[in-house]
Design a protein that fits this description.
Layout lengths: L12 H9 L8 H14 L4 H6 L1 H7 L5 H4 L4 H8 L8 H21 L2 H6 L7 E2 L13 H12 L7 H10 L3 E2 L6 H5 L1
Parallel strand pairs: 1-2
Helix pairs in contact: 2-7, 2-10, 9-10
Length: about 190
Amino acid sequence: MDVHKCNWCVGDPLYEAYHDTEWGVPVFNDNLLFEFLILETFQAGLSWITVLRKRENFKQAFNNFDFNKIINYNEDKINDLLNDTGIIRNKLKVRATITNAQAYINIQKEFGSFSDYIWAFVNKKPIQNNYKNLDDVPANTPLSDIISKDLKKRGFKFVGSTVVYAYMQAIGMVNDHLTSCFRHGQL
């Protein structure tokens, strides 16, 4: 039996596995939500497969995305990261990760969890889209504009509307699997 998938992932086993098991699956765990946020910010201006191929390296380099450790990174750690060929070595994005970890903790303190904060934008229920073609899927939406502005107001960096929409897709706030994809109906 031929299984239909969103065509953006077809042909790369790592991409297909991510598509089949993670992309668009609702995430409510604060640690995983932070991981995706950091990966999406590093992805800004690059392709997702580039980040996906370096995901394990990122995990190692950033203490398994432990925001409580990341907030304490000093210049030595920043220099180590900038010399780590296993990750995307962008000084602004590395520094933004530290800033974002602190902003993330502040949101947790205010809302009880980042999950409660981010999922409130969709009333804790994924938006079910019904796109037939990849060209129909937007790069951003009025809702991603609102979330982006709110995150920026709270001190986050590299969270433009396009990054936020990609994040919303990754963590399942929106189901943007194409209607022909086997995952669309499952989610």
